[in-house]
Specification:
Blueprint lengths: L18 H4 L22 H15 L3 H14 L4 H13 L3 H14 L4 H13 L3 H14 L4 H13 L3 H14 L4 H13 L3 H14 L4 H13 L3 H14 L4 H13 L3 H14 L7 H12 L4
Length: 303
């Protein structure tokens, strides 16, 4: 399955407590950000140059080149916390979570108040399924900087996965109160509202997420899912199509579009989408028939 901008599609985490979310075909969004400028001792000019170039390479998606630059920055300056942090981001995107956690930890050892390193390590722990360690790191990030909005978004995602919906909404609300331009906060809050049965409120949040970041593919998928729950199949299909135009490897959009097509009586087209899910991710599992039958019953659709 194609990697999203977040490190992991949380809907694939095998946790019984998230059935309400996975049954809706939703996936949460995490926030991982480049390091901010920090007040640190004077650094080697060469180390800073390689760090800067590596961040530019990563922004372009050139992960191998970025990794080489961060390696070189660390060789020039072994105590350069930001270089370990940025290298950890690359390693996490590549799926080497153990090494990423090691680099985030090294950055924290160098600078014990490095908020984004705690936040980044929390994301890596969550990607490994360790919610206890993830929550501890997000809590520490918030303790150091109560105005660091991404940590609230990421802690809210963990609480959402644990089924602590009210606490999750409180975290997303807090993030939005600090920074009203965080599309992931609106999208995740919308997913919780949807899991609680508030489809109209969810759609409002998904609309806001898309207005802020039209490239957030999960928001189109999730809005389409909410519309599908309301019985607006054509508008749901439009959202799933947009999601797939933006990311042809987005498994959840194929799943949901397939269900919508089956509901419209286009079973063969729906089956092609389900087959595409399995092609993209051979380990993909989802109770398709259970979900489709439940929608048919609720929307009074006959075979």
């Amino acid at each position: 399955m194609r990697k999203r901008t977040a490190w992991v599609s949380l809907s694939t985490v095998q946790l019984r407590s998230i059935k309400a979310l996975t049954m809706l075909g939703l996936a949460l969004s995490l926030i991982v950000v480049p390091a901010r400028s920090q007040t640190v001792p004077q650094r080697s000019g060469s180390a800073v140059s390689y760090l800067t170039r590596g961040k530019a390479q990563m922004a372009k998606g050139h992960l191998n080149e970025a990794l080489v630059d961060f390696d070189t920055a660390i060789k020039f300056e072994p105590g350069f916390a930001a270089a370990y942090y940025e290298r950890a981001r690359v390693l996490a995107v590549r799926g080497d979570l153990a090494s990423a956690i090691g680099d985030f930890t090294k950055a924290i050892e160098i600078n014990s108040r490095f908020v984004m390193a705690y936040d980044g390590r929390g994301n890596a722990y969550l990607s490994k399924g360790d919610m206890v360690a993830a929550i501890a790191d997000f809590n520490r990030a918030i303790e150091i900087d109560p105005r660091y909005a991404p940590a609230y978004v990421n802690r809210g995602a963990v609480r959402q996965l644990k089924g602590q919906f009210n606490e999750a909404i409180a975290d997303f609300d807090k993030a939005i109160s600090i920074n009203g331009r965080l599309a992931q906060a609106y999208n995740n809050r919308g997913a919780v509202r949807m899991a609680l049965g508030n489809m109209d409120g969810a759609i409002v949040d998904f609309d806001k997420a898309i207005a802020i970041n039209p490239r957030l593919v999960a928001a189109y998928n999730d809005r389409g899912t909410a519309r599908l729950e309301k019985g607006n199949i054509d508008r749901a299909l439009s959202d799933f199509n947009i999601a797939l135009e933006k990311d042809p490897g987005y498994v959840w959009a194929y799943l949901n579009r397939g269900i919508a097509l089956v509901l419209k009586g286009k079973k063969s087209e729906g089956e092609r989408d389900f087959a595409k899910c399995r092609e993209l991710d051979p380990n993909f599992k989802f109770p398709i028939n259970e979900r489709t039958d439940a929608l048919k019953h609720r929307l009074s659709i006959k075979d």
